[in-house]
Amino acid sequence: MGETEYRNVRLTADAYQRLKDRKQPGESFSDTVERIAGERSLLELAGLVSDEEAAEMRDAIRTREERSRDQLDRYVEELDS
């Protein structure tokens, strides 16, 4: 098995703090960088669905949000009475 190689990386204080804030308990900075670097960007999702499919998704989300708000309003009314 090969020996692990290490590299030094210079970060601004702001960049270091942002990385530190993303670091999870028990995770090394290397682990954090590997996890973050493996995340997908929303830009990579562009073109996966048609405009029509995206509109249908937005409508479904809006409908669900409205139902949730209505349900919450009913609960509040019950509590107030």
UniProtKB/TrEMBL annotation:
Give the source's domain of life in one word. Answer: Archaea
| Pfam families in the cross-refs | VAPB_antitox
Keywords of this entry: Toxin-antitoxin system
Q: What is this protein called?
A: Antitoxin
InterPro entries for this protein? Put_antitoxin
